[in-house]
Amino acid sequence: MEKIMEKNGSDYDLPKNEAYLTPSRREAIHDGVWGDIDDDGPNYRGLGWVRTSIIMIKIQFGLGVLVMPSILHTLGMVPGIILLIALGLLTSWTDWIVGTFKLAHPDVYTLADVGMLMFGPIGREILFGMYWLYLIFVAAAGLLGASTALNALSDHAVCTAIFVFICAIVVAGIAAIQTLDKISWFTWVGVVGIFASLITLAIAVGVQDRPNAAPKAPLPWDKNVVAFNNPSLLEAMAAISTIIFSYSGTPAFFSVISEMKDPRAYNKSLILCQTVVVSGFVILGAVVYHFCGVYVSSPALGSAGPTMKKVCYGLALPGLIAGAVINCHVPAKLVFVRIFRNSRHLSKNTPTHIITWLGCIFTNVSISFIIAEAIPVFGNLLSFAGAFLSTPLCLTIECMMFIWEDWRTGRFNRNMSIGRKILHAANFLLILGSIFCMITGMWASIDAIRNDVKNGNTVAPFSCADNSGS
């Protein structure tokens, strides 16, 4: 077994070739997270770089892309596209930091481990709680998204709460598969489904006379597509927070790298992932907004009328389910690894291993189901959670990691090169900017919640109301 010696003096097992962790593997390895991996347990190091990139794409390319046309209308086409590209590049930088930090610290599995290294036990608990809660909220949003698709496809055949429950059962069953390697096949289906639904939507709104929400013929209508808009500060920050939320898969990449055959191939996965995600956000968002303008629906899949809405949601449903699966699997595994770290039960199929794993899955899915159904004004509360949690988790902490790692290794000193000093200054400015976005995004979300309550635009807990906009 080839080993690489990291800066901190620890050995990191790496493969001579990608076959060494297949079901026919003949030798055991010791991993910094999973301990001893052999034929007596699940293969927690089975992802190649292509399947890794597909999982990363699915983590990022989900619910966010469905609201991109609305974001472009709020900000205006030109500043909206500029911000989409700029924030995509900024999160690509923090994604890269995650990969380099993981190679330097092979025993890091989540941001909680990063918190332990940088801030001690208190930092570990704070970051663990924030990241777990964030994933639970995203999974809840995924369950609601899947229930929206079922409502659209069935013309609201049953109570929405029942649809959410059905989605929760399906998601729990798939998420219970133990390794990301074995789940990756479903993420392929999900990514293709989401892309197909949005391409179908773009074609549909391009060839039809007018979007579904526009005045019906023969009444005149104007798309009112604007190159530059004039949003208020709160409207602009709410839109920016939504973009950051859409790119906020960064902390999950620690868990994904931990299941790669060769973590050194992570950068190839990252380049493919971010190229697809940024291009998809910009192209699909701009095309749909160009043809629908102010009459774009949110989610966007309902913009082309009742029939095409069913077609688009039918294509998107596997992707919506796949997104919920990933965001239920990852937080369950966070808890599972936390319970059994440095125990033989972590990587061996013992009864304790299996029972605890299933318990983690169903507990996490149950909490996501309750949040999805029990909290009125869920959309605005999710925006608040996104501003409060996703911004620091995908921007602030990673920039601090870069500075801390240079300080730890002695590179942070007055003799640094000019280029390195510029990088540190840029990271410091990004930390300040992310804190500003977090505070103003929370302010915007709280203001929206207050207005909804004031105007009576709330949804009763466990409501049966149709959430597909029919």
Automatic annotation (TrEMBL):
Location, primary (coarse class): membrane
Database matches in InterPro entries: AA_transpt_TM
Pfam families assigned to the protein according to its UniProt record, in alphabetical order: Aa_trans
Keyword Transmembrane among UniProt keywords: yes
Transmembrane residue ranges: 61-90, 131-154, 160-178, 185-207, 236-257, 269-296, 316-340, 352-375, 381-404, 425-446
GO-annotated cellular components: membrane
Membrane topology: Multi-pass membrane protein
Subcellular location: Membrane
Alphabetical UniProt keywords: Membrane, Transmembrane, Transmembrane helix
Positions of the Amino acid transporter transmembrane domain: 47-444
Keyword Translocase among UniProt keywords: no
Family indicated by similarity: Belongs to the amino acid/polyamine transporter 2 family.
The protein, known as: Amino acid transporter transmembrane domain-containing protein
Originating species: Cutaneotrichosporon spelunceum
